[in-house]
Structures are given as structure tokens and as C-alpha cells.
Write a structure and sequence with these properties.
The protein has 367 residues and is α/β, with parallel strands linked by helices. The protein has 18 helices and seven strands. It is elongated and about 80 Å long. This is DNA polymerase III subunit gamma/tau.
Length: 367
């Protein structure tokens, strides 16, 4: 039985061009390499799973490559690149600050920094989760970070920039990584699915992208989980049942009943949702999102804020045309009020049902 490699590792970018949705950062790094304007310390910060450590590794590999391509990418053929690709490079040192956060650990690092590289020009020190260093360790690190030997480059990576002391920040070039957009994640998942021989519905990949909340690593982990569940054919229904996501259809039907003031039918849909194992808070959050999506569909300028794929987007546009702005705003107000009161409420089901009744009677008052 061959070893299975999770998609997050198998499809980890190995060049600047393959990094998803961080083009401003990769372009800046490539230009710095091209013009030989390398700083001695960089700080990569941003949410989890957006490519901080990956970019640090690619940067370390590229500056040591002896045969760069015209596009400023590593050649993968020189001795330095081969050593990096087979994880035997002595030029790249990765340190986990979560488990090496004391002054003694930093002292060892400082002693190691003095040793020049045997192959290639630079020794690169990638310190992950750098905010976990103790304040004493930070202070011990300051002098070396400001004036390291010519061959040493530090790349610090963190998810919590606000925890890093200002004296460290002032010694680094700071790069802020963005959360990855839903369309970018869905596009990359489509590429991965194609490579793996998996057929996947676009709406299914869109739901995975939404659930990943801007993190590519999370998206690929969820993708592997869905493949294990449904095999080589991923459908929208498989994804929502596996990830415990409420089907869009419930909300579309619900709004239709709201507009017609059909209170009993609306309450029965909510009962059906509860019987499927979803809790009231999950439902009311989903309803608020649905009403918000209908509201942004009312104007051609804001319709681009809708983060869903083709068919569902058309359904939103059709339903938005049948709802008045005033109704949507008041309904959003009620659902938001219900969301805020949910935790404090003793009878949670009654609170949500009351919100449903109030929304269903909004157009009745107008009539």
C-alpha cells in the first residue's frame, strides 16, 4: 500500500508563481532578489494557512539558487536546489518558537548564525510562530537581528503581529499576507481535483472554500475529508451533509413564505431544520447571511460582493427582485436582534420562532 500524502503537503507551492492570491508579496520578493536588495530580516504575518512559511521556504531556496531563471524562479537543478528539494539543505534552518522560546534557545541560535554556509550564499533562519518567544528571548535576539553576519537572513512568521515587541518590528521588513478569497480557493481546489482524477460540482467546491474561511490549508484538508467520504465524485449534497452546512434551498423557500405571509409554512421549515440536527443559532446566522446576500443583489454595483457560484447567484438575483429593500432591511434587523439575544435566552426555540413570525408579518403590515 503506497503512502498517502495529504493534499495540503502534496500541492504545497514550490515556486513564487504557484503561490495563490499573494501576488503583491511574491512580486516584491522577486524584485528584491533580482535587484540584489535583500534585507537581513523579514516578518511575514497574516492568518493561518495563507502561505507564510511556504513563501519563506521558496524565498530561501531562490536566493541560494546558482542558476536563476529570467522570471526569478529557482532552477531545481543546481546542487543547492536539489538539497532543498530532498530536505537535506544545511542553508535553511527552521525553528519553532513555540517549543524553543527561552533565552538559552536564542543563545544557541546566535552561536549557530556565526557559521557561514558551505554551499550557496546565504544561511536562512525561518522562525515560525515568533510571537511565542518570551520577552527575555526577544531582547536577547535584538542585537543579532539588527546586525547579523552578511550571510545570515532571518524570516520571522507569525499569526499575531500585535504580540511582537516594537523593537523587533522596527528591525524587519513587514509583509502582511491576505486571507485568500473564496473564488481563488475554489479555483485551486478545481485544479487539485482535476489532478487527482476527482469530478466535483462547482457549488460543492464553493461551499468548501466558504468553510475554509480564507485558509488554503484548511480548504485542502476539508477536500481530502470529502474525498474520503464520497470517493471520486463530489456533489453539493455530499459536501453539505458531511460539513453540516444548511442547504441554500431552505432559505430560498423560507423567504418565499415570508413574502406571502405564510407563518405556518415558515415554522414547519424551521421544525424540519431542527429535526435534521441543526441548532437554532446556526439557522439564524444562515438566515442573516441569506438576507444580506439578497440585499447586495438589489444593486448591480454590490452584486460582486456575493460569494457564490453561477446557478445559486442567478437564484439570488431572481428572489431579490421579488423582495423590497424595506422588507429585507427590517428582516435583517430582526434576525440580527435574535442572534444577539440567543445566548441569553432560556427558551431558544421560542426566540427563533418569534423572529420567524415577525419577519413573515412584515409585508402584511404594509398591505
Amino acid at each position: 500500500m503506497e503512502n498517502f500524502i495529504v493534499s495540503a503537503r502534496k500541492y504545497r507551492p514550490d515556486s513564487f508563481d504557484t503561490v495563490v492570491a499573494q501576488s503583491s508579496i511574491t512580486t516584491t520578493l522577486k524584485n528584491a532578489i533580482k535587484n540584489s536588495q535583500l534585507a537581513h530580516a523579514y516578518l511575514f504575518c497574516g492568518p493561518r494557512g495563507v502561505g507564510k512559511t511556504t513563501c519563506a521556504r521558496i524565498f530561501a531556496k531562490t536566493i541560494n539558487c546558482s542558476n536563476l531563471s529570467p522570471e526569478v524562479e529557482a532552477c531545481n537543478e543546481c546542487e543547492s536546489c536539489k538539497a532543498f528539494n530532498t530536505s537535506r539543505s544545511f542553508n535553511i534552518h527552521e525553528l519553532d518558537a513555540a517549543s524553543n522560546n527561552s533565552v538559552d534557545d536564542i543563545r544557541q541560535l546566535i552561536d549557530q548564525v556565526r557559521i557561514p554556509p558551505q554551499v550557496g550564499k546565504y544561511s536562512v533562519y525561518i522562525i515560525d510562530e515568533v510571537h511565542m518567544l518570551s520577552s527575555q528571548a526577544f531582547n536577547a535576539f535584538l542585537k543579532t537581528l539588527e546586525e547579523p553576519p552578511k550571510h545570515a537572513i532571518f524570516i520571522l512568521a507569525t499569526t499575531e503581529k500585535h504580540k511582537i515587541i516594537p523593537t523587533i518590528l522596527s528591525r524587519c521588513q513587514i509583509f502582511d499576507f491576505n486571507r485568500i478569497g473564496i473564488s481563488d480557493i475554489a479555483g485551486h481546489l478545481e485544479y487539485v481535483a482535476k489532478n487527482e482524477g476527482v469530478t466535483a460540482e462547482k457549488e460543492a467546491l464553493n461551499i468548501i472554500a466558504q468553510k475554509a474561511d480564507g485558509a488554503m490549508r484548511d480548504a485542502l484538508s476539508i477536500f481530502d475529508q470529502i474525498v474520503s467520504f464520497s470517493g471520486k465524485d463530489i456533489t453539493y449534497q455530499d459536501v453539505i451533509s458531511n460539513l453540516n452546512v444548511l442547504d441554500y434551498d431552505y432559505y430560498f423557500r423560507l423567504v418565499e413564505h415570508f413574502v406571502k405571509n405564510e407563518v405556518p409554512d415558515s415554522l414547519m421549515i424551521f421544525d424540519d431544520i431542527l429535526n435534521h440536527g441543526f441548532d437554532g443559532h446556526h439557522f439564524i446566522n444562515g438566515l442573516s447571511s441569506h438576507l444580506r446576500n439578497l440585499l447586495v443583489c438589489k444593486d448591480p454595483v454590490t452584486v460582486q460582493l456575493l460569494e457564490v457560484s453561477g446557478e445559486i447567484k442567478d437564484r439570488y438575483k431572481v428572489q431579490a427582485a421579488s423582495c423590497e429593500n424595506d422588507f429585507l432591511l427590517k428582516a435583517l434587523e430582526i434576525s440580527n436582534e435574535c442572534d444577539m439575544q440567543y445566548k441569553m435566552s432560556q427558551n431558544k426555540r421560542l426566540l427563533v420562532e418569534l423572529a420567524i413570525v415577525r419577519i413573515a408579518q412584515l409585508t402584511l403590515k404594509k398591505k
